[in-house]
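>> received
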Amino acid sequence: MMKNLPFDTVNLSADDVQVMDDAYKALKTKFNIGLPDAGFINRFELFNNEQEASVSGTFLLNYPSVACYLNFVKIHYNYTAGRSRVNNYKCQAWVFVNLKSDFGRVLIRKETLTDKLLEMVHHTELKFSDDKVFSDNFYAAANDIGKALTGMTQAFRNVIKENMYLNFVIEINGIALVIRNSQPIDAEQTIHLAELASKIAALK
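>> returned
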């Protein structure tokens, strides 16, 4: 049994703990890792909308020159298997970036067919006339169009286009950005997510 792990393993299977440890070790090969006192995950609806979600571990990336960090977030699943009700927990990797300007409230994700159909009726989506590739492939909505358009520069959109996976969702609240990977943790995607956060943090 592994001991002294820098993340909470309560209610997780041994296999899940091993995967998390593998992801943590992979992170340490790519980044200088620090352990912070606290984060700001409860600012985000992506987290608050998950019942019984909790932070399992938090790691500063590029320590001590820090503009981003990664959380292991424990998600509670409650489902029916046959005649039994099953309670289960899985961990996901989420990254956080302190932005250099206020974007307002923004949501960005890969665009779905449903989004395209709804856009024909309700024109709520942000569109960029100078970036058809982004507009055609990503759903973006904001509460303050001016702030969002100013913050979402071509450089910002290029990073998203080049690095965003289908299962990633971005939420921005002012100068705080979170990217959620909705899939359970694995080492490869955790590294990719951390690299994406670092690229966003490095933008001027």
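>> The radius of gyration is 18 Å.
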